[in-house]
Amino acid sequence: MKLKLLFFFALAFTFVSCQFSETMVMNADGSGTMTVEVNLNEMMAFGGDALTDSAKVKIDTIINIKQFLEEKRDSISKLSAGEQQKLKKLENFDIRIKMDSESSEMTYAISSNFKNVAEANDMLNGLQQAGNMMPGDNTEMMKPSTKEDSKELVGVRYTFENGVFNRDAYIKDKEMHQQQVDSLKQAEAFMGGAKYTLKYTFPKRIKKTSNPEASYSEDRKTVIVRQSFIEYFKNPDILDLKVELEN
Question: What is the reported pTM?
Answer without folding.
Answer: 0.79
